[in-house]
Each structure stands twice: as C-alpha cells, then as structure tokens.
C-alpha cells in the first residue's frame, strides 16, 4: 500500500480497479452523437486506491506514480473524484442526510487517459467510499443515475465485476461465472484522443457482440470466445499512435494467449497461461522498453 494510505490516518480505503475491455464492438450511433457499443469487460486487481477521512473542510490530495500528472487541474474541477463527491453530496442533502467535509486522497497508480477507465474507476470508488463514510442509504437507481452523469464508464466501474455492457455502457449484465486471467497491462505513456479515434473509424455499424447459444464455461471456452471477438477502435487508434502496434507486437512475442488493445488505447493487454509466465514476460518487456508502463496483475473473477 502507498505510504500515505498505510499510515492509518484515513478512516477507510476503497480500491479503484482498472477496467479492461476484453472486447469492444461499435454497433451504431445515436442521434445525439453517442456511439452504441457492445463490450466484454473485466477488472484487474491492480488499480488506483482512495482513502477517506472526516475533515474540518474538504480536502483532496494525490500520490502515486501518476499523481503529479493530475495535480495541475485537480482543484479546477477537472477531476472526476471531486465531481463524484459533489454530486453525491447534493443527492445526500436532498434525501435529508448529512454529508460533512471530507479529505479524499487518491493514490494514482494507473496511467492517465489510457483506455482502462482510471478516472471512471476513481469516480466509482469515490461514490462507494463516501456512501460508507457518510453512511448513506440511497435508492440504487439514484446512485446509478449519478454514476451515469459522471460518465458512460462509471456504472461499469461501480460494479467492478466481469460484465457485458451495451448501449452507451448503461445496460449491464453481470457474468458471475466468468474466470480470472493472469494478464500484463502495457502502455507507451503517450496520449491518444478518444474523440479522434472515433472520428477515424472506418465504419460505425459493425456486427454486435454475440456469444454461442450456450454461454462459455470455464477458462478454455472463454479464451476461445475472447479470441473470436475484437476491439473495433484498435485499427484507428493504431493509425493515430504507431506505438500501439509496437506495444501489441512486443506483448504478443512473449507468448501471450490473447493480445488486444483496451478501450480507445493506448493500453494493450496480454492474457497469459499463468502468473509466473506473466511475470517473466513483464521483466523482458521492461528490459526492452524501460520507460513504458508494464504491470502484471490478474482479472477479478465473477461471484459464482
């Protein structure tokens, strides 16, 4: 645990797991401009971490490898953590609950704007943490509405369990029997514009995400299924950022079972046979690209 959160000065902590798009199919576009997506999503055991404690006045602090990249705009309202705090406080007051001042500390371990839902995961963890700290009892549909207002990925991150998401991300089906996979996350630490990736899509009416007539069972069947899926954003992201092709090739060369880009990039993941193989692969990747981000972790299994 980060030294700041390890001191025990915070009343509670909340994990913000990275969101991994194992598949992302762009199936259409609404009249309001939002793209329709079918996504197979899992979450990793590695992510950001937030600490919460009662305070005389609202405070927000940062640490972690990527914390300095957020500090410039955090207090200017550019941080989803603060937006989540403020929206939940408004809802609490409207429902007759106290929502007193709080010090929130964000340990930022995930790269910024990297296609693995870091900001959305932080917002979702803020909602979960403050619900506990403030002892709020609000209707589930109210929390879901706040989450969606914060961003299309936040409802998924609120669940932080394997799922299929459709629409703009609000129609969620949990996958309780989904297995865990050892993975490597890699990122060249270059920014990729999500709007530009969508603008450069060759087509926006791709085939939907379909499963076999019987849902896959177990590790092997899910691997076969994932192999046959795709990320429709990957070709346009690769054309914008050549490092994505390099990164994907490097991971694939480490004998990954499946290699794919997550979200709109630039993070790519590789699924490996076991965690030891993943650790050896990550060590090799770090030797080849010491300035890039590589993280060994495991996806979170379903509840079954």
Please, could you describe this protein's structure?
The structure is a single chain. The chain contains eleven helices and ten strands. It has two domains: 3-174, Ribosomal Protein S5, domain 2, CATH 3.30.230; 182-298, GHMP kinase, C-terminal domain (Alpha-Beta Plaits), CATH 3.30.70. The model has no long low-confidence stretch (mean pLDDT 93). 37% of the residues lie in helices and 25% in strands. The chain has helices at residues 3-6, 67-78, 80-94, 118-133, 140-150, 154-159, 194-199, 218-227, 234-240, 242-252, 275-288, and strands spanning 12-29, 35-54, 59-63, 102-107, 163-166, 171-174, 182-187, 258-261, 268-271, 293-298. The protein has 304 residues and is α+β, with helices and mostly antiparallel strands. α3 (80-94) runs parallel beside α4 (118-133), α3 packs antiparallel against α5 and α9 packs across α10.
Overall pLDDT level: 93
Tally of discrete structural domains: 2
CATH architectural grouping of the largest domain: 2-Layer Sandwich
Computed CA radius of gyration, to the nearest angstrom: 19 Å
In short:
The protein has eleven helices and ten strands. Strand 1 and strand 2 form a beta hairpin. With 304 residues, it is of the alpha+beta class.
Task: Write a concise keyword list for the protein shown above.
11 helices, isoprene biosynthesis, Alpha-Beta Plaits, GHMP_kinase_C_sf, EC 2.7.1.148, Ribosomal Protein S5, domain 2, 304 residues, 2 domains, Ribosomal_Su5_D2-typ_SF, 6-stranded mixed β-sheet, 4-stranded antiparallel β-sheet, 10 strands, globular, single chain, ATP-binding, alpha+beta
């Amino acid at each position: 645990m980060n030294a700041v959160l390890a001191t025990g000065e915070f009343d509670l902590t909340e994990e913000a797991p990275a969101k991994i798009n194992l598949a992302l199919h762009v199936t259409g576009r609404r009249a309001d401009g939002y793209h329709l997506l079918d996504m197979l999503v899992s979450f990793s055991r590695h992510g950001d971490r937030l600490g919460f404690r009662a305070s005389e006045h609202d405070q927000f602090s940062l640490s972690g490898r990527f914390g300095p990249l957020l500090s410039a705009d955090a207090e200017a309202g550019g941080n989803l953590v603060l937006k989540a705090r403020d929206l939940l406080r408004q809802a609490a007051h409207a429902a007759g609950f106290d929502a007193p001042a709080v010090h929130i500390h964000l340990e930022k371990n995930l790269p910024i704007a990297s296609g693995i839902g870091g900001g959305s995961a932080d917002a979702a963890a803020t909602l979960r943490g403050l619900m506990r700290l403030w002892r709020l009892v609000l209707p589930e549909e109210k929390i879901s509405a706040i989450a969606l207002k914060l961003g299309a990925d936040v409802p998924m991150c609120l669940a932080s369990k394997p799922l299929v998401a459709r629409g703009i991300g609000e129609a969620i089906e949990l996958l309780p029997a989904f297995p865990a996979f050892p993975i490597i996350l890699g990122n060249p630490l270059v920014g990729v514009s999500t709007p530009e990736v969508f603008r450069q899509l060759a087509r926006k009416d791709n085939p939907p995400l379909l499963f076999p007539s019987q849902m896959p069972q177990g590790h092997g069947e899910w691997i076969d299924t994932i192999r046959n899926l795709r990320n429709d954003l990957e070709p346009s992201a690769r054309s914008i950022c050549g490092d994505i092709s390099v990164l994907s090739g490097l991971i694939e060369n480490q004998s990954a079972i499946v290699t794919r880009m997550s979200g709109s990039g630039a993070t790519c993941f590789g699924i490996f046979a076991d965690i030891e193989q993943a650790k050896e692969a990550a060590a090799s990747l770090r030797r080849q690209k010491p300035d890039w981000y590589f993280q060994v972790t495991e996806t979170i299994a379903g509840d079954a």
